[in-house]
Each structure stands twice: as structure tokens, then as C-alpha cells.
Amino acid sequence: MSAPGGSVLPDQVGSQRQQSVLIIDHSADTRQVLRTALERRGVLILEAKRAEAGLKLARRHHPALVVLDLETIPAGGEAVRERLDSETENSRIPLVVLGNVRRSEALLPHQSVVQKPYHYGPLIRKIELLLADSKQVA
């Protein structure tokens, strides 16, 4: 349920009834496929093309999960994980990293790695499982 241009309708975020997923990916096609599939499952979508904009959304809206394409950031997943932990109230936000990840990054806590190239079906199932897990913890 994003507004035109990928922005979020503010009154929809923060609802206890609806989980949100932040998608940080430079590819409009990837964002649209994930948004369509997840919105059909009742998930509120926040999206950003760049990591910095995504981190601002995470600080403001506290999503249940973040999907991050490594091509959007020069510093790698470790830097984003550290900033998510330090700049958001919930330092346990699950992070699904899309891309070719170094072994050290793959071992970061609360992080799942989906290697490229990937298929959307398994990626969406992974997101659903992580969202279900986060509901049980909350």
C-alpha cells in the first residue's frame, strides 16, 4: 500500500495489525514484484532506491523486516546492519540481503542471504517465514 512514486501513506504505518517490509533496491522491477506479491498477503510496503533513503524510512517507520539489495550500497551489508541496529529502536529487525555476500557478512545476526541470481518465489517464502517468526517474538 504505497502511494504513487513509492512513498508511504503515513497513517498506515505503525499499525499493530499490519506488518511492514522495507524494500531497498535500485531496481524498480524488483520493488514492484515484491510490493505486489507482499501487498496481496496483507503486508504494508515501504520502499527506497538507495540505502540512505531506506535507513531514513527504517528510523521513521520501524519495519518488521528489511529487504536490501547490496548493489544499492557501496559499503556492504555490515554497514547497513550496524546502522539499522544503532539508528532504530528495534535492533533485531531481520535483514534479507540480496546479492553476492562475503562469508563474514553472511554470519551477521538477524540476517538472511539470498544469492543472485534468485527466483522471486523462494525469496517471498523466506520473507513470509521471517515475518511469521517476528510476529511470534513480538
Short note summarizing the structure:
41% of the residues lie in helices and 17% in strands. The chain is built from 5 helices and 5 strands; from the N terminus they run βαβαβαβαβα.
Written account of the structure:
The chain is α/β, with parallel strands linked by helices and 138 residues long. The chain has one domain (4-137): Rossmann fold, CATH 3.40.50. It contains five helices and five strands; from the N terminus they run βαβαβαβαβα. It has helices spanning 28-39, 51-61, 77-87, 103-106, 120-137; strands spanning 20-24, 44-48, 65-69, 95-98, 111-114. The chain has a five-stranded parallel beta sheet, with helices on both faces. α2 packs parallel to α3 (77-87). The longest helix is centred in the C-terminal third of the chain and has 18 residues, at 120-137. It is globular and about 30 Å long.
**How many domain units?**
1
Gross morphology is globular
Widest sheet: strand ordering? 2-1-3-4-5
Secondary structural class: alpha/beta
So, the CATH homologous superfamily?
A: Response regulator
The proportion of residues forming helix, as a percent range, comes to 40-55%
CATH architect. name: 3-Layer(aba) Sandwich
